[in-house]
Specification:
single chain; 127 residues; alpha/beta; 4-stranded parallel β-sheet; two-stranded antiparallel ribbon; 39% helix; elongated
Length: 127
């Protein structure tokens, strides 16, 4: 934010680096929000990336810059990875990780899923 001679603050345009996305919608939304699309070697406030970001890239960011991903994000953003990580945590901290339903990652857990299904079916028949 810079100051003019009138003492009023001039708003600096938000600049977005969209060079790491193949989706035109990101550029269109940037423009629709009246943000500026960064040109090569121009400083930017936001970087939009389609893929995961390495820790080195995050370490290079200036304090005012933001990015739409963070290192290791795939471990919680993908359902199969999230399920695997929740199950690991549940194994070590069962009292704290009892908030999600039984989960199977197919095809690896197919046998366990079918065993569970048959157990439930047997319980319903007994009633």
């Amino acid at each position: 934010v810079s100051t003019q001679s009138t003492g009023k603050k001039k708003r600096t345009a938000i600049t977005v680096n969209v060079s790491n996305t193949r989706y035109d919608v990101v550029r269109r939304v940037t423009e629709a929000l009246n943000y500026k699309v960064a040109v090569e070697n121009e400083d930017y406030f936001i970087i939009w990336s389609d893929s995961t970001v390495h820790a080195e890239k995050c370490a290079e960011l200036k304090p005012y810059q933001r990015i739409n991903h963070f290192p290791g994000m795939g471990e919680i953003a993908r359902k199969d990875c999230l399920a695997r990580n929740l199950q690991k945590m549940q194994k070590y901290y069962p009292e704290d990780y009892d908030f999600f339903p039984k989960t199977w990652t197919l095809p690896a857990d197919y046998t366990n899923l079918m065993n569970h299904y048959h157990d439930i079916k047997k319980k319903k028949i007994k009633k």
